[in-house]
């Protein structure tokens, strides 16, 4: 629940602050004062390779998309 409140806080400021009142064991009075937990992002190598492939394909597709945009 606390992670969800933190993610929604910038979008639903008042709603998340109201929901925060009911979060048990919270360290701060407002969701807007809460810190994200310190964790290193661990991405499996297979997923990292997939993202690299997608970004390479994106680099190939962007010029073609721009040509199509200018032609229309």
What is the topological layout?
Elements: H1 2-8, H2 13-20, H3 45-71
Helix pairs in contact: 1-2
In words, what does this structure look like?
The chain has 72 residues and is mostly helical. The chain contains 3 helices and no strands. Helix 1 packs antiparallel against helix 2. The longest helix is centred in the C-terminal third of the chain and has 27 residues, at 45-71. The N and C termini lie far apart (47 Å). The model has no long low-confidence stretch (mean pLDDT 89).
Secondary structure: number of strands: 0
Query: So what's the overall shape?
Result: elongated
Q: How far do the termini sit from each other? A: 47 Å
Tell me, rounded to a whole number, the average pLDDT: 89
Compute the gyration radius: what is it?
Answer: 20 Å
| Computed structural class | mainly alpha
Number of helices: 3
Query: How large is the share of residues in beta strands?
Result: under 5%
Question: Could you estimate the helical fraction of the residues in percent?
Answer: 55-70%
The run of helices and strands is HHH
Report a brief summary of the structure:
With 72 residues, the protein is mainly alpha-helical. It has helices spanning 2-8, 13-20, 45-71.
Name some characteristics of this structure.
72 residues; mainly alpha; 58% helix
């Amino acid at each position: 629940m606390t992670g969800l409140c933190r993610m929604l806080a910038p979008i639903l400021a008042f709603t998340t602050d109201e929901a925060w009142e009911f979060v048990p064991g919270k360290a701060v009075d407002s969701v807007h004062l809460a810190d994200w937990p310190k964790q290193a992002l661990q991405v499996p190598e297979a997923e990292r390779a997939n993202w690299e492939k997608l970004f390479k394909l994106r680099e190939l597709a962007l010029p073609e998309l721009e040509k199509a945009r200018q032609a229309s």
